[in-house]
Amino acid sequence: MSDQKRLFLVDAYALIFRGYYAFIKNPRINSKGEDTSAIMGFMNSLLDVIKRERPDHLAVCFDKGGSVDRVEMFEAYKANRDETPEGIKTAIPYICDILEAMHIPIMVKEGYEADDVIGTLSRQAEKEGYKTYMVTPDKDFAQLVTENVFMYRPVFGGGYETWGIPEVQKKFEVTDPLQVIDFLGMMGDSSDNIPGLPGVGEKTAKKFLAAYGSMENLLANTHELKGKMKEKIEANKELGLLSKQLATIMLDVPVTFNAKDFELDHPDVEKVKQIFTDLEFRRLTDNFLKTFASEKEVTPATQTQDIKPSEEKATPKEQKSAGEGQFSLFGGDASATTETTSDYTRKTAETTSHFYQSVASGMATKLFVKNLLNQTSVCFDTETTGLNPLTAELVGIAFSWEAGKGFYVPFPEDKTEAQELIEVLRPFFENETIQKIGQNLKYDIKVLSKYNVEVKGKLFDTMLAHYLINPDMRHNMDVLAETYLNYTPISITELIGKKGKNQLSMREVPLEKQTEYAVEDADITLQLKEHFEKELGEANTQKLFDEIEIPLLRVLAAMELEGINLDKAFLNSLSEQLNSDIANLEKSIYKAAGEEFNIASPKQLGIILFEKLKLVDKPKKTKTGQYKTGEDILSYLAKDHDIIQQILDYRGLSKLKSTYVDALPLQVEELTGRVHTDYMQTVAATGRLSSNNPNLQNIPIRTERGRQVRKAFVPRNEEYTLLAADYSQIELRIIAALSKEETMIEAFKHGEDIHASTASKVFNVPISEVTREQRSNAKTVNFGIIYGVSAFGLSNQTNLSRSESKELIDTYYDTYPKLRSYIHEQVDFARDNGYVQTVLGRRRYLKDINSRNAVVRGAAERNAVNAPIQGSAADIIKIAMIKIYDKLQAGNYKSKMLLQVHDELVFDVYKPELEELKTLIKTEMENAYKLDVPLDVDLDIGDNWLEAH
Fold it and tell me: What is the model's pLDDT at position 141?
């Protein structure tokens, strides 16, 4: 076994950008509105490397000021790059502070890139007998690989791969890693704006290297080339040599590898925790502490020898990441970039004065309830045997109405005795004058309904309140407590342990610990309520909270408890049909491919399509060199190749079978014989509901087989029928009303087919002469405008060319000029205010609306237009649900509202109530909110959901 020391050099910006864009669709925003995605992504990667490898020596290398030498050689070097996103700019000082606190050196030199710093240090370390691992996804580093220098590449989906000489030889088809420089010089690099040789791509570069070995040898033998390729290369010899020079990583940067400075130390744990607390990194703090707390020996992936844990180096060395020279990123004291306090500690139950008491049974409970009924506002929290409210039994209920104080009423296991205790507490829950406070009250309401208890009176749910205040942040109680109260609650794992066979039930936890845990939850939730009540007013969302989200909470609880009937026999039959269809598709695909292979393997599929069948001249590849076979790629090619359409059909049927047809029967609740989805109010920032366990909102509707799944949802029994009520084109109606586009408004008022009407105006033909294709194209534009469709996007969705698509979009805006003005106004409003809002004032915050990065800013601009429309549609159907539910309750109807799927509501209607219900539902939905455009609702009934849709 080798005892050779190992040095890990981290390419800082490569991992920072990678971390930032990993969260681009769901950015990590803290309560101060700061985008912490880049910091979190980078730190996750860094800690992962340390945990996996326990390196002896480690440094993080940054760029500073760009490459002066390369810009002197070629002024346009990297000139095409977008401005660095603000979320990354603001992350750098924090990252540097964290690295300083971790005693990890920052290696940087003004006027040089991190590539050059890493290249220089790797060569110096190699001379001193070190193995160096360059932590970066950037393929350019492959030129530095030697017997003692390796690339340590993070791969998508988790983990790392190590590239030594054999891997580089295979990847680039070279004999020596130094030839990677020639490879990059020949084909150029669009990301760095290195021009390369005109007309030379990856395949051609590899062919030239196989024939000539180097750029210089190629240029010396251009007489052997033919046609336009010969002309292009001979005319651009200087450009080729320049490109090779630009692609060459420098090995003479004035930095020094001093092994002592690079030793991995034990970090200043408290200082790192302070910074993480400021950033509101809870899980990352746990990850960090675990990374540096392990006393176990670790075997790195890069060698077999046991490495001593970092804790053995117990004495912190002289600070390395601040000060002058090679360790200075800012040219000053890096510790000054983030304010922290050395004596900071977060509060806990152990450090905070409190009075939590369990209530004995009998007279003590009765006296407690008497006191409880004298309160005006009480927070309560149920403790149960499980997370499924339909099967969970009460273990206890905690109550608090004064900060720092609370009581816990434990429940007996015997069901009769438990019901007797509930009867004692019933007067509180059904008292309409006492406000009930909780975190995720929907769960508590559903649990109590099992005991035939209704929670009456005004409600305040802290999870819903925070969702309206800061929709992009997480809303679980631990995060809220740490963020707003500087308090870390007792972890549930402290009581019952982690998941697995040794995990306890809450009933097995000693009463004293139950009391501390449960009452703390109620106490903290009460304190959060006091905090959020003020913020709701400041954000102008109090009305939305009181009149929409809180009433909807009760509606959703009732719908979830009701569930829906499922025809399992039909799904079993459908599963068998799908097996047959999938098997037939497999045979067709194998026949077209000329061999059998794993169709579900992207790697094998890519080789078949793009190497064996050669369906595309220049197939796209992932960063790991694998062919891209995603739906976006294959859909574009499907119209030209039968095998690709068959593969898409195969994927669609396989997913349908596994996700719905085979999975739904397993999700029927044994107790009720029905499927009970869970509607989440706090997931989508637009205000839309999210359906889970099972997700009934994503059942495919565009394919025949997908539609068949809806056939499995059936009425309660023969006395009932399913009724589906669907808003017709509600988003288009909303954008017509908000933009005050008279032409579109009039079309809706006169009941015209809006897509045919649009086609008539855009294509300048009478509405009676609009073709099916013209209407289809107009429909694509109508809906695409909401999502910021481009000419490129429209051409991919239609048979139109890009120029035809552009002309159609331009004509569309000429036809509806107020629509274009509205879009500009929305973006301007977002730029000025940092948010947009729905018709009811629901806000969508857009932190990137003024970003200098065009890609990031463009996404925010599209959200500025889309969010008010999609969010207003969500608000309107919520109002309709509340009104219909109230009418059903007041009229004591047997009919029930079962499902909400975007713009559609599904009801289980008692047949004698059908005609009355049709009128009620249509009236309440169409009058839920008054716009300048009439809302229109389509109703249908059937013996299953498909018939009713």
Answer: 94
Question: Is the CB of residue 859 less than 8 Å from the CB of residue 827?
Answer: no
Helix (H, G, I), strand (E, B) or coil at 748: helix
Q: 814 exposed, middle or buried (CB, 10 Å; 0-12, 13-18, 19+)?
A: exposed
- What letter represents residue 175's amino acid? T
Cβ within 8 Å of residue 736, ≥6 positions away: 744, 745, 748, 932, 933
Q: CA nearest 867: which of 835, 819, 890, 822? A: 835
Both structure tokens of 625? 């060199």
Residue 795 · residue 804 · CB < 8 Å: yes
Structure tokens at 28: 């990590």
Judge contact between 811 and 800, C-beta under 8 A.
no
β partners of residue 722: 908, 942
Comparing 102-116, 312-326, 807-821, which segment has the lowest mean pLDDT? 312-326
For residue 711, give the nearest of 580, 571, 906 by alpha carbon. 571
Pairing of strands 377-384, 394-402: antiparallel
Which two three-digit tokens encode residue 169? 């030889």
Angle separating helix axes 802-815 and 817-833, nearest 10 degrees: 90
User: Which segments of 64-178 does DSSP mark as H helices, in order?
Assistant: 68-73, 86-89, 91-101, 114-127, 165-172
Tell me how far CA of residue 326 lies from CA of 337, 371, 426, 440, 651, in angstroms. 18, 68, 70, 52, 53
Q: Nearest-CA neighbor of 151 among 160, 163, 143, 161?
A: 163
Assign domain 6-171+250-337 to its CATH superfamily: 5'-nuclease (3.40.50.1010)
Instruction: Report the 10 Å Cβ neighbour count for 423.
Output: 12
Question: How much is the pLDDT for 345?
Answer: 60
Distances (CA, A) of 347 to 217, 319, 484, 492, 676: 69, 30, 12, 17, 39
Q: How far apart are CA 180 and CA 169, in angstroms?
A: 9
- Enumerate helices (H) and strands (E) in the chain, giving the number of each: 38, 24
Residue ranges of the domains in the chain?
6-171+250-337, 355-539
Measure CA of the first residue to CA of the last residue in the chain; give whole Å.
Answer: 68
How crowded is residue 855: how many other Cβ atoms within 10 Å of its Cβ?
A: 12
Q: State how far the Cα of 11 lies from the Cα of 17, in Å rounded to an integer.
A: 11
Is CATH 3.30.420.10 the right assignment for the domain spanning 355-539? yes
Query: Looking at this protein, which amino acid is placed at residue 854?
Result: A
- Residue 339, pLDDT score: 35
236-259 as b/e, with b when 16 or more CB fall inside 10 Å? bbebbebbbbbbbbeeebebebee
pLDDT classification of 3: cutoffs 50, 70, 90? low
Q: Token pair for residue 788?
A: 């910021």
pLDDT at 81: 65
Give the model confidence (pLDDT) of 720-757 as tens digits: 999 999 999 999 999 999 999 898 898 889 888 888 88
Give the 3-state secondary structure of residue 72.
helix
Gap between the Cα atoms of 937 and 929, Å rounded: 13
**Residues 684, 811: Cα–Cα separation, whole Å:** 34
Distance between CA atoms of residues 539 and 654, nearest Å:
46
Q: H/E/C letters for each residue in 604-628?
A: HHHHHHHHHCCCCCCCCECCCCCEC
Q: For residue 406, which phi and psi values (nearest 5 degrees)?
A: 180, 170
pLDDT for 289: 87
Digit-coded pLDDT (tens) for 830-883:
888 888 999 998 988 888 888 777 778 888 888 899 899 999 999 999 999 999
The dihedral formed by the CA atoms of 215, 217, 220 and 226, expressed in degrees to the nearest 10: -80
- Do 706 and 861 form a contact (C-beta atoms < 8 A)? no
Give tens-digit pLDDT for 630-642: 887 888 788 788 8
Q: Which of 209-221 are b and which e, b meaning 16 or more Cβ less than 10 Å from the residue's Cβ? A: beebebbeebbee
